[in-house]
Specification:
four-stranded parallel β-sheet, globular
Length: 225
């Protein structure tokens, strides 16, 4: 691929998830046949590396993330790593994109940010207080049908933070999909502190760990959700 573009079907059909060697990490063994690392063109790879060099925001993020990983891997909590990362990219104002169900957790995190010299600025998912029916959501699809139930408004959350403006935005429990919209419309870089999962105590990986037992139903072919 001398044009630097990614091949349409590089590697196996499922990509890296099917790899068992992960030789791209330490390179202690040869890269397996069909490895994406070999399939990618050098021009494409150089384009990525160019983003990670210099003084641009992508380079600052890449270096800060690598430093936090290298210095604190397995030593700090996600909360502490977020503080360390924000400090390394020179962030001052930190936006908190909050799910209404995790407002308490967000208040604690805001206090932690303040204690560490940052200025937190938060926007709740229900900002605007517009009923879900205004975008065509049927009553039976509300959590509590028959009453006002404000829709989540991640685009408005992002716009509030863009206007502030914030230097880094932190997702705290936004719903699946709403987090996608928030990241899409955010001007500032976005990282995630909490992934909401009410059933599993905000630990969605538990469904993967128990996919052979309690959550075996996840492996049933053709099962519709």
């Amino acid at each position: 691929m001398n044009d630097g573009s990614m091949p349409k079907s590089a590697g196996k059909e499922g990509g890296c998830v099917e790899c068992r060697t992960m030789s791209c990490y330490r390179k202690e063994h040869r890269l397996p046949d069909g490895c994406l690392s070999e399939a990618v063109g050098r021009e494409q790879l150089d384009q990525c590396l160019d983003l990670y060099r210099g003084d641009g925001i992508d380079a600052r993020i890449a270096r800060a993330a690598a430093e936090v990983e290298g210095l604190y891997y397995g030593k700090l909590t996600r909360v502490e790593e977020t503080v360390a990362f924000a400090r390394r990219i020179g962030a001052r104002t930190i936006g908190l994109a909050i799910c209404v169900g995790l407002a308490g957790e967000a208040r604690i995190f805001a206090k932690i940010l303040e204690a560490n010299g940052f200025e937190p600025f938060s926007a709740l998912c229900k900002a605007g207080a517009v009923d879900k029916s205004e975008i065509g959501i049927d009553e039976e699809l509300k959590i509590t049908p028959g009453c006002h139930e404000s829709l989540c408004n991640p685009v408005l959350q992002a716009r509030f933070m863009n206007e502030k403006p914030t230097d880094l935005n932190v997702v705290i429990g936004l719903c699946v999909g709403h987090d996608s919209l928030f990241a899409k419309h955010s001007d500032a870089p976005v990282t995630t502190l909490i992934v909401k999962d009410r059933v599993l105590g905000h630990n969605p990986a538990a469904a993967l760990y128990t996919s052979g037992t309690y959550y075996k139903r996840l492996m049933e072919p053709g099962r519709e959700l």
